[in-house]
Amino acid sequence: MACSTHYEDLIDKYVEGLVTVEEKEILESHLKICSDCRQEVEELQQIIRAAGSLGQVELPEDFTPTLMEKIRDLSYQQVSYKKTPSLLSFIRNIPSVFFDCFYYNKKAFIAVVGVFLVGIFLVSVYNQNNLGINFATKSTKDEAAYEIAPAGPDLLMMEGAGVSNGRQLESESASSVQQMSSADTSLKASSTQERTQKIIKNAHISIYVEKFDAKVDEIIKTVDELGGYIETSQIQEGKSADSPRRAYMTLRIPQDKLNDALDKFKAMGRVTDLQISGENITDAYYDTDARIRNLVQQEERLLEILNMAKNVDEILRIESELNRVRTDIDLLKGQLTSWDKMVEMSLINVNLIEQEPSKEKVTTITLRELWQRAKQGFIAAINLSLNMLASLAEVVGALLPIALIIGIPYFIIKRLLNKKNKS
Amino acid sequence: MKGGKFLNAEKDLIRRAKKGDVSAFEELISGYEKKVYNTVYRFFNNSEDAMDITQEIFIKVFTSLHGFRENSSFSTWLYRIAVNTCIDFMRKKKDETLPIKDEMMVGNDTAHGSYTRLPEEFIERQELKQALMKAINSLPSEQRICVILRDIQGFSYTEISEILMCSLGTIKSRLNRGRRALRQMLKSPELF
What we know:
By secondary structure, chain A is α+β, with helices and mostly antiparallel strands. Chain A contains 15 helices and 5 strands. In chain A, 70% of the residues lie in helices and 12% in strands.
């Protein structure tokens, strides 16, 4: 027995076949010389085998029925005191209802949730677009402004869609738009008479750009492509090391290409200022034109009178008069051609300011800015969630009739089936 | 026992049973009834007690199902309840039937020096099976449950340690002591 306590652990493992190869060798060599241990091993193995061969006894026949009866009794008792509906328990059950829905029919649940999400998304996108348009129309007030300066409403659309940099810019361009629209209305009044509108369009744009030299070249190329020319161009080095370089350019662009040019410039960098103005000179233009015609007639008459002149004194007086008229005609004609040029070629003042590449620049944030940003974020988040809520309400409203149409018959059928099962 | 689909189906049944769905509960325990009954039967070696106690176990399972947190497998949880119920019941029963038990224990304790070999055909002989069952029934409850779960019901050590909430070492030592005790008992002529 002494050795069997020594080998006990090994034997225990051995009888269950849990020994390693070395342990097995050690034990087996021991078993060859120790009959006690050999006997112990054999008997333990026999016991294990015997226990394994005991087999399973069958359940008593009435086991399950009596058990289930007891359990049913229990569950009815439980249900009867459980069935006190309250708002609290209803609310508490909402998450579990969702979870159960997911659990029992994943595909259907995902489909329903998907429909809701897509719906909310679509509705909110739709609303946002609507908002943008409303905003634009509200602030322009005059839809005719669209025709004259598409850039104006464009800008406002951006504003409405939530681009928040440059509220200043909005007010400025809005004023320019109003100016243009007033010009437009007066123009419309006179457009009944058959004469072409003469409008001088000018623009001013300030842009912060990163690759300064490349952008300057690009502007020059653009001007060439659009058939315009550069009136003046000036590049100013920064006064100190960290002050930016600036380029002031006065460009002439054919009027019909003005918007193309502005669009290209806008894409170059951060636009901080954009003004478009339209000066309607139609009335003055045609007045001048009429005056020229009058003067031409006067000239003709003076020429006739000159032919009838009898003496030198008369001739001299008529010629001096003629001279005055001709000078006037030349002056006025010069005015007309310069107006024509101005109308034909729009003026663009470009103010290009160099901006260091954003990555290299160490940004500094003031406390005020921080607060401002936080406020903006807060407001944006609240607006977003309100929008989402509204969208959800809209989707629910839209789906409710469909859900009722499908849901009511479903529940009725389910009820009927349940009753049938119970009976 | 393993396999995702089966586990999912079982989880589903548990979920429904938790809500008081009796038919789901019936389906849930249908795979366990026989095994639990057998465990209890071996523990008490008495079919009447086994019937009553197994039913009690499943009623306990049903009523405390809502407290089942699903951090262990259902089977482990179920067997834990089963084992605890058995031990509780045995304590009560022991108080009532102490004299009989005592007599048996006395019989066991009179160990004889002669170590006769167990007959070769031991396994085949029905009366020796009876003797084994009797012997198991007279083991201390901790060893008894280990022997039943391991050698009769064929659970793994890990499963048993989870059911009994003991370390593997404890289970092994209880089991080994139990087996040795069985060996001694089967050799003592009083049992035959």
